[in-house]
Amino acid sequence: MRILKKRPGQAAVGTLSVIVLALTALTAPAPRAQAAATPSGTLDSTTKNVTWQSPVYAKGTVDSPAKCGTAAEDPENAVCSRFDLTVDPPEGQWDDNPEGGVPVSIQWETPTDDFDMYIYDSAGKQVASSAGTADPESAVVPKASGTYHVVVVPYDVHNNSFSGKAYLPEATDAGNLTGFSGSHGRYEIAAGALKARAEFFTDDTLRLQASPDGVLADPKDSHMIRQQPTAQPHTKSFDAGTYYGIRSKGVVLRVYKKPLRFGLYRADNRTAVWQEADPLRWTGGGMRQSLKRGADEQFFGGGEQNGSFSHRDRVMNVGNNTNWNEGGYNNSQPFYLSTAGYGVFRNTMTPGIYDFASPVRTGQQERRLDAYYFTGDTKTVIGKYTSLVGKPFMPPVYGLEPGSADCYLHNANRGERHTLDALKVSDSYVDNGMPLGWMLVNDGYGCGYENLPETGAGLNKNHAQLGLWTQNGLPDEAAEAKAGVRVRKLDVAWVGGGYGFALDACDQAKAGIENNSDARGFVWLPVSWAGAQRCGVLWSGDQSLSWDFIRWQIPTYAGATMSGIAYNTGDVGSIYRHDPEMYSRDLQWKAFLPAIMTMDGWASDITTKQPHDQQPWLDGEPYTSINRKYLMLKERLLPYMYTLSKEATRTGVGAVRPLALEYPDDPAALGPDAKYEFLAGPDFLVAPVYSDTDVRNGIYLPKGTWTDYWTGKTYQGPTTVNGYKAPLDTLPLFVRGGSIVPMWPEGTVSWESRDRTRLGYDIHPQGTTEYTLYEDDGVTRKFAEGASATQHVRVQAPAHGKQGGTTVRIGASVGSYRGKVSARSYDLTVHGEHAPSQVVMGHSRLHRVNSAAELAKAGSGWFTDPATGVTEVRTPSVPTGRGFTVELRK
Question: CA Rg, the chain, in Å?
């Protein structure tokens, strides 16, 4: 993603030391002789509001605050506007304030233009920004105290000016209950001017609204909610003296009288799900809810939170953000869930600050509460939340293959090229034996395209799909889809405003492909909001290349799953810098993310400073072979990942998971070791190497048997593995005991050209375990009409440490879809310590051979590797409509 604007990270800490801020103030215009002095204002116990006015800008000036120059160089503020804001808050101002800091906003006279705002502290550190396309731009300086420098960049303006505003928010608390009425699942509540409403739904979801203005309404122009839950009319209310109770099917809402507070309890009305610690509190531009925190209560969610997945004792921000670094939250969502058995979606398109200290205080920058409360365990809550805002979309199978992005026409970084030159790169993927699912052949920032139908057809010959990205909308989507465009990437110059705007753009881009072809829309975007999981792959923006960046991305993508985001990723390596070792390390573990992409045309080598494209073979050996190894493994595991994608459309739970999701009763799953590893589905534990080392320490393995994927060594969890040998070609990777993993044949480089007459199951027998494979045509939307098939596999084996044989029952493939084969053979890889005495399929013995090479030639039979105890079985071709049994007899 080449961004020509929206780059808060580019204004480094030292930048502001040389930028002397200047702006024209409303209240105290400087004399002409002091034109370079920076106007200022102060917020304190006596002055609660400060406003100022900018000059009129005839046109846009620069695209970054780093280019503003000094005040002496710009005495008339012709390039950028500046204002110094001093905050001297009264004692206790930020102890419990809904807005959490000083709101600063700029609003321009002509709303179609675009000013960007950046705020720095006295040391030059950026503390807030608003660089989207919203009007007004607004941000909050958290717990402000001291002097701050506001820099406003006129990015895209036409004879326009803006007015600025900052204020100290003053808080008001809800008083005593003054009204309570209702029935049939809907109740009206009042505490003086504050009006509230509680609505109940059949899945025990509760919607609670409150407003001191007395207006209870949905957010304006919101499309977040796809389907309102079914109303629950069978509720009863009762007066318990100190509170009114409202009983639904499985919960009781308490409405306390003095003062008005709320608490949600289980059906016994004794076990609290959540309980307000204090009344609702609001200011001129915010409202917060305060909840008691359990002794061991943990919190997850918030969408994409760069560098973290667990939030107890942390402050979590949600809102429009283009900070691609650790601590950024550009794909955040106003949703969190708790291990106390509930989750909360704030139905809003405003920024929020969620403080998970004790008590828990969650606030949005609006004078209203509109919250949906879901009850159940973590996976249930994720399911209910995504039922409301949209389940994760079903990607085309090529979307789970690697993608490549470059600018081939008018690329200032690489010289003049043509769009058809993309075909040379796709040919190189084929020549180097590496999978490629799709290519973006432009970038929208002055890099357009030509010969689009020919480019699409050429990519299709290499089993890849054509993609485009945009910075300014989709005016030609019908013609482009006709030319073969099946992938869309949306950039911040268009969707950087976030919130509903980005969500609508995502929906539009997906629909643009689907309305003009039989394909599934496949969309990427870097800034989004609640509901984006239904339409797009989210990625964490333009990142620098460093071991630190590799490290913090691990919990980021695993944590996003806790908000129902099934596809969250980052560029392999980075966009602007390249190093062979870091690139290979990054590619290794990202091969276990569903979606990955390289940004090929913008990087320079970190040592030589020379341009260096980022296709995975360009570094030569040993890197080419290492990169191929993991891309080929990713390709073989596509039936596993594809099945997880289908499950996500039903459950809302994506493939990449923090250990705490699958092992909620294990405290170590929240520990420092588990933070930097993740599960790919329930069966693979991935512990990336994120430093310049060939030894990985602190690999936490939870309860169960775990087998090293490379060596076959087994571990009994819970345990921590230190001193794990991880040379550059080795990703620490473990497989859960009892797993059944479908795999395409070895050597597969494309979903389209694979040998469909063969399918593998990699089996780690332990007790009785089951697995259901999902298949469809991989590309069309016919699956939504039932054109798909499932195959159930059941493995019966002795428990860990016991002796005995293993029976594999492979059921018939039930269902049909275009391209389904009528028969196929099966490659079973059965892990164990000893060779069976015989292998029987149905009533016939399979022939034993002496090596894997002989087995490949024989067509069917079996072989046990004496060094590992792994038995490989290849069955004869079997009709897919018929089940069969394979027994490994001791």
Answer: 29
